[in-house]
What does this fold into?
Amino acid sequence: MVDAIKVENVSKRYGDLQALNGVSFNIKQGEFFGLLGPNGAGKSTLISALAGLLKTDSGCLSVMGHDVVNEYRSARRSLGVVPQEIIMDPFFTVRETLEFQSGYYGVKNNASWIDELLEHLGLADKADKNMRQLSGGMKRRVLIAQALVHKPQVLVLDEPTAGVDVELRQSMWRFVRRLHREGHTIVLTTHYLEEAEELCDRIAIIDKGEVIALESKQDLLARGLGSKLLIRAKHDINDVPAPYKAALVRHEGVEIELTLNRDADSVMSILDGLRAAGIEIEYVSVLNDSLEDVFVRMTGSEPPVQLGSGEAGGES
Amino acid sequence: MNGLATYTLFKKEVKRWRKVWLQTVLAPVVTALLYLAVFGHVLEGRVEIFPGISYAAFLIPGLLMMSVIQNAFANTSSSLIQSKVMGSIIFVLLPPFSALEMFLAFIGAAVMRGLAVGVGVFLIALFYVKVPIDNFLVVLGFALLGSYVMGALGLIAGMWAEKFDQIAAFQSFLIVPLTFLSGVFYSINSLPPFWAYLSKFNPFFYMIDGFRYGFFGQSDQPVLFSFVVMLAAALLLTLVCVRMLAVGYKLRDA
It folds into this structure.
């Protein structure tokens, strides 16, 4: 089966900035693929190249087996792109916008699919409203509908939930999951790593124009990087035993949190050591690494945006 | 050639100017009529350029063509610069358009707007003075060629410009002077020889002169020559525009 997206040794330079440096990877049909990286890593440059919005200096890109330069018509028909910025044409209504976009792809008699998109994206009652009258979230939904109006096999979502409220985000993901279930290949770039962790099967991390990780989500999360061990004692822990001081992350009253190297440390031996030091243990929990922990460690960047304060837990 | 895609883009571009017809059609018609009222009144009876034809009647084809070409230029240039500045150009760049398809759609809409304004000016001018039409096909042919050429020039300006004021500069320093000095208000034969000679290098002169021939059967230059000049300009600009669209000049990041 032909790859949904094939990126082969793609490079792009803007003056002194090497935006992409020999990037290569494939995305299989039906995958939910995450493209992550800090700001300026090259994600949007790659998407623009894929969509034919810019020319690369070298390398090849193809969508569903069609080269994006030499077979641009077939490649673009196979691809739907939801751009990062909220863009609209202020002259037209929502329905007109979708009808035009459908016609641009040469799709005839598309009214029923347009109605379906309007319905699923909660835009049915806004269909005849001018684009200027819509809120930011609604405009974002129209952008998704525009990307899907020609029924592309591959859908690229470039930061689709930036600045979108929780309700819309959830309804949007329900719809995208449904598209994925129906066989669409989904490529997602997002700053919300929890979204990528929840949705994506496979993830590429790009940094400074290079792919620094390309693995299934499970492999990426289990890269031998440490988890954390949370221990709550019956009484205040006054002194953490010496062997564990180096691994101490947090110490607050009855609680201590230790870095845990899954390959080297044994939870049982740590607990035995603490008991031997006179600490009465009441509760133990292993905190797994989140994608964010992996991301920060690999890119050395500041953690990207949290979905919302209070949601960042990971305690199990 | 994807006919449906091209037609859809053409339809969208036409709908764009139709939705703001007060600004895109009525305003230029009113401007042309103000010119007609002021110049026609002031110069009526004092100047006779073609024997037996009043100055007001002489003026109408020039004003009409000026309105046609300025609006054809405005349509493509404003559509492109607006969509570039607002980012909505992406909706045209993502679909599988060929350069020729995009060109034909944009130019077609510019020609339609030029003709709409032209018809508006003509119909209202009829209340002011009766203008004969010697050869309707010549009138139509030059109106089509003029708006085509200016639509193409507007497309180039729209691709080149990055800000609205650059389009305004293009209009103020190139389009308007060349239009005013093309013989809209006079015959170049009434100019001193040097200026009359210089006018022949102004391509806009051939649009106005050939168009006027269609009304009166008289012109400063042989109408066939004007037609050939216009046709050559149309072909040249088509090649330039299609090439620029194909490489995505200032549209797709190089």
The CA atoms of residues 122 and 264 of chain A lie 51 Å apart.
